[in-house]
């Protein structure tokens, strides 16, 4: 890429802005931002702008086109340029550019869910172990914004979505591939296309690299065919195989130091109950994080300290408040609490199932708030699993997807009765007009229950019917939880 090239940046979100700033800082003066908005704020002097519905037209006017993650690689205007063998326009992305110019090892993390938590936990462990670590990608800071700061002793951890991986021609030194199911079918034409978009995380690895896979899921066999990295398997199932596994409530790993290589020894990492991250689903984030730390020569003691203290990210099964309800002393009733958990990042059925299973396993009565905007998710398994959870008291359903979740619950209960999985009445559901109504209804039901319980917002859906994103939804839930707590305290 020459300083005189005509450069287009498609999309002026977080990554688009960071790419624009980077190019200007490095002396590229002919930069045009193309965005579907009619106008954008904060353009630097000299940066041109193309906006509106035709923002992707005329891309052949440019020498280089940087695609932002939110703009599909498969859009006809982009796909045509990529497929043209004689095209004079190079189509790239910020992530691709970063991989091509990053001077230090990259640890890449992808998966349908859990990649943010896993990336952050890896970073926490490595920093405690004395490593200089930069965390970016789909979480926090766009990677190109710290490219100039990377010294030879640094390590980069990147959370990578399918949108960022799809056009890569290089793979990270360590690839962590969490469970890959179905997601973003509003963006991808099929589940197969979604999976294939993630292939580059391992596709270009060599035998000097490492790839971590979860042996408990079917995707592992599919991804194991990619590249030639050393495979490291983890398993969260009792008696599972692999380099790290869970058995009898404890995490173990293979210890081959100072041993006959024909023998297999196991050492304990930590008891699961001592891990600060709540929920058994988080073990799927913990185990690969431990494996990465071991590859990077972090001590077992340092790993254990991190696991005992790292409490996760906002909007991921996050405790956000408690309401203390004073019982009627004359009736002999004691005080009880209603705890609020914000799982707004749960935008898939699988994430909602995992959150609900956390409290059902703890035998904690809970009220679920679910639903939101549509993105084509299949709620069949959600309906079936929730119908089996005996500690689920009631569900408050929001938005267009709430209707389909309710239908899946009815079908799930029927299926469970027919196969003998459950014999109780169907889970009670109520449709509400929005989040406030859902919280107020859940609190009223929790007070009537008269004992300790949980109000869990784990939507299993996107938020765009009521909020601009999952973060805003989570912040509003936190505020409502605070209001409920104040009411309970009589403030």
Structure description:
- The protein is an alpha/beta fold and 491 residues long.
- The chain has three domains: 87 residues, NAD(P)-binding Rossmann-like Domain (Rossmann fold, 3-Layer(aba) Sandwich), CATH 3.40.50.720; 208 residues, Mur-like, catalytic domain (UDP-N-acetylmuramoyl-L-alanine:D-glutamate ligase); 171 residues, Mur ligase, C-terminal domain (Protein-Tyrosine Phosphatase, Chain A, Alpha-Beta Complex).
- Helices cover 33% and strands 22% of the residues.
- The protein contains 15 helices and 20 strands.
- The strands form three sheets. The protein has a nine-stranded mixed β-sheet.
- Helix 11 runs parallel beside helix 12 and helix 12 crosses helix 13.
List the helices and strands and how they pair.
Blueprint lengths: L6 E4 L3 H12 L5 E5 L12 E4 L12 E4 L8 H8 L6 E4 H8 L4 E5 L4 H14 L3 E6 L16 E6 L2 H4 L8 E4 L13 H8 L1 H4 L6 E5 L4 H5 L6 E6 L8 E4 L2 E6 L9 E7 L11 H13 L4 H10 L8 E8 L10 E7 L6 H13 L4 E6 L8 H8 L4 E7 H21 L8 E4 L3 H15 L3 E5 L12 H19 L3
Helix pairs in contact: 4-9, 4-10, 11-12, 12-13, 14-15
What distinguishing features does this structure have?
single chain, 491 residues, alpha/beta, Rossmann fold, UDP-N-acetylmuramoyl-L-alanine:D-glutamate ligase, Protein-Tyrosine Phosphatase, Chain A, 3 domains, nine-stranded mixed sheet, 15 helices, 20 strands, 33% helix
């Amino acid at each position: 890429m020459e300083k005189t090239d005509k450069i287009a940046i498609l999309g002026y979100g977080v990554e688009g802005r960071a790419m624009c700033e980077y190019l200007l800082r490095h002396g590229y003066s002919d930069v045009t931002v193309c965005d579907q908005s009619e106008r954008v704020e904060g353009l630097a002097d000299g940066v041109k702008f193309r906006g509106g519905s035709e923002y992707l037209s005329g891309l052949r006017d440019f020498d280089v086109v940087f695609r932002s993650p939110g703009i599909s690689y498969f859009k006809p205007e982009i796909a045509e340029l990529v497929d043209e063998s004689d095209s004079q326009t190079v189509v790239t992305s910020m992530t691709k550019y970063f991989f091509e110019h990053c001077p230090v090892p990259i640890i890449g993390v992808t998966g349908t869910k859990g990649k943010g938590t896993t990336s952050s936990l890896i970073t926490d462990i490595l920093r405690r172990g004395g490593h200089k670590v930069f965390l970016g990608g789909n979480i926090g800071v766009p990677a190109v914004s710290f490219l100039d700061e990377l010294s030879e002793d640094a390590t980069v951890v990147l959370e990578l979505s399918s949108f960022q991986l799809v056009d890569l021609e290089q793979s990270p030194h360590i690839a962590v591939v969490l469970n890959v199911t179905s997601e973003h079918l509003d963006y991808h034409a099929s589940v197969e296309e979604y999976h294939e978009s993630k292939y580059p995380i391992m596709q270009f690895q060599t035998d000097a690299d490492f790839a971590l896979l979860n042996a408990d899921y079917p995707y592992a066999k599919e991804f194991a065919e990619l590249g030639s990295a050393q495979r490291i398997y983890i398993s969260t199932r009792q008696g599972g195989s692999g380099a790290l596994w869970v058995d009898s409530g404890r995490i173990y790993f293979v210890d081959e130091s100072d041993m006959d290589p024909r023998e297999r020894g196991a050492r304990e990492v930590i008891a699961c109950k001592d891990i600060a991250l709540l929920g058994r689903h988080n073990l799927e984030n913990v185990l690969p994080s431990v494996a990465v730390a071991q590859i990077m020569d972090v001590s077992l003691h340092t790993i254990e300290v991190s696991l005992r203290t790292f409490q996760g990210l906002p909007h991921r099964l996050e405790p956000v408040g408690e309401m203390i309800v004073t019982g009627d002393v004359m009736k002999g009733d004691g005080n009880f609490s209603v705890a609020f958990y914000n799982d707004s990042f749960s935008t898939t059925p699988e994430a909602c199932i995992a959150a609900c299973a956390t409290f059902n396993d703890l035998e904690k009565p809970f009220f679920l708030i679910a639903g939101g905007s549509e993105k084509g998710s299949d709620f069949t398994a959600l309906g079936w699993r929730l119908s089996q959870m005996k500690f689920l008291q009631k569900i408050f359903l929001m938005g267009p997807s709430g209707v389909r979740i309710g239908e899946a619950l009815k079908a799930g209960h029927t299926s469970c009765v027919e196969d003998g999985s459950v014999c109780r009445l169907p889970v009670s559901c109520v449709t509400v007009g929005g989040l406030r109504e859902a919280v107020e209804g859940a609190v009223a039901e929790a007070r009537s229950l008269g004992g300790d319980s949980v109000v869990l917002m784990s939507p299993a859906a996107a938020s765009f019917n009521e909020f601009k994103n999952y973060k805003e939804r989570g912040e509003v839930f936190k505020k409502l939880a605070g209001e409920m707590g104040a009411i309970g305290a009589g403030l």
